Amino acid sequence: MKKKLWIALMALAPLTAAAQQKWTLDDCLSYAMKNSITLKKSELSWQTATETRKQSESALLPSLSANTEHKANYRPWTDEQTDGGSITKVSYTGSYEVNGKWTVWNGNQNHNQVKLNRLSEEKAGLSVLESANTIQESIAKVFVQILYQTDAVEVNRQTLETARKNEERGKAMLEVGKMSKADVAQLSAQRATDEYNLVSAESQLANYKLQLKQLLELTTEEFDVAIPTATDEQALGLIPPLAEVYQTALLQRPEIRKAELDKQSGDVQLKIAKAGWLPTFSLSAGVATNTTTLGSNAWSTQMRDKLALSGGVGISIPLFDQRKTRTAVNKARIQQLTAELDLQDKQKTLWKTIEGYWLEAQTSQQKFRAAITSVESEQTSYELLSEQFELGLKNIVELMTGKDKLLKAQQNLLQSKYTTILNIELLRFYQGEKLKI
């Protein structure tokens, strides 16, 4: 599990964007996978779970400890003599022991705890993938918004250029008496409105770039995005079938796998809780000796003569635990039911998310097809209106209305195009494919 997870993350990790002036989507994703604080915290939680699992595995082995204690004693009024016949008021004693203990069987609590910690470790690893998916999805959404807004800025710039030409043409017609000052004033007002719209669109583009920069947690001042060419063919591409995407996502998405592991954890926790009713068997062994300066024998002789070996078997049988085990068992069963409901909730949430992307892709693609025809029609209509306006066959209101209709059609085209591309890519992402635009 861990090896596969690291391979999946490191495939995105190479940092290529830092030395580039403009960032592609792949650059953004690679940088985020390597530098995201949220992701790093998830990885540290995973490492903690790994250490917990290793400790529980080691707990299956016997414990061994060595102890030694040394004391100096002073007896000012003693009249006791040593083996050598002299009275010693100051004496020294030392003790040495090695003890071992092994829990042979405790209702399989220790083995089940290892299983539980292994599941926790795997869930922590899946949390890393879940965080990575969330970050990538957020970056892709903002990145596509930047693409859309970039084209929207260009449309507003072209619209402003047209407004300026109309204003200049109106002023020329005013000089020859073919247009009133009121009509020229309307053309000037339209030009000013289009200037405002352009500034507003550029401000929105800068805001989206700021959002992307913040998602990447960048602190540098300079940041720009490399704008790829998004073709109409991408928006008109095949939309993955809803049921197929969902079935694939059920097998691959980390949040679903985590919910399934929660169910397994509930089963193991129930076994651990029931073990509270079972006896515990343990083995113990030890070796000890001591020395003292009050004796006449040599230190090595005392160590040998006072050497003592011990061994024992321990049995602990629970009789009455103030309902602790019963409560633990009932809580474990409740946790099992909660885990089952959580899994169902995750599955339904996944379905809703995928269904939302799929429906949005379907609707936007249909809108895009209609918008293509609409833009062509409004463009032709506006060109005819411009010609008729110059000939005096159309008034200023009709010209401006035609221009507004063309602008709205162009904006609808861009919005439906990029919405379709984004949702198709997200559907593929939920199938396990890499995000790309």
Query: Which regions are unreliable across 5 or more consecutive residues at pLDDT < 50?
Result: 12-20
Fraction of residues in helix: 55-70%
Question: What would you report as the Rg, rounded to the nearest angstrom?
Answer: 39 Å
- Overall geometry comes to elongated
- The CATH architecture category of the domain at 2-35 and 108-151 and 202-278 and 323-430 equals Up-down Bundle
The overall average pLDDT, rounded, is 90
**CATH class of the domain at 2-35 and 108-151 and 202-278 and 323-430, please?**
Mainly Alpha
CATH superfamily of the domain at 2-35 and 108-151 and 202-278 and 323-430: Outer membrane efflux proteins (OEP)
Structural class, by secondary structure, is alpha+beta
Order of helices and strands: HHHEEHHHHHEHEHH
Number of helices: 11
Straight-line N-to-C gap: 30 Å
Identify the strand order in the major beta sheet: 1-2-3-4
Largest sheet: 4 strands, antiparallel
Tell me the total number of β-strands. 4
Q: Classify the beta-strand content into a percent band.
A: 5-15%
| CATH topology description of the domain at 2-35 and 108-151 and 202-278 and 323-430 | Outer membrane efflux proteins (OEP)
Architecture overview:
By secondary structure, the protein is α+β, with helices and mostly antiparallel strands. The protein has a domain at 2-35 and 108-151 and 202-278 and 323-430: Outer membrane efflux proteins (OEP) (Up-down Bundle). It has eleven helices and four strands. The protein has helices at residues 2-10, 25-35, 37-58, 109-175, 181-215, 232-235, 242-252, 254-274, 299-305, 324-390, 396-430; strands spanning 63-74, 90-105, 280-292, 308-316. It has a four-stranded antiparallel beta sheet, with helices on one face. The longest helix is centred in the N-terminal third of the chain and has 67 residues, at 109-175. It is elongated, with a radius of gyration of 39 Å. The two termini are 30 Å apart. Residues 12-20 have low confidence and may be disordered.
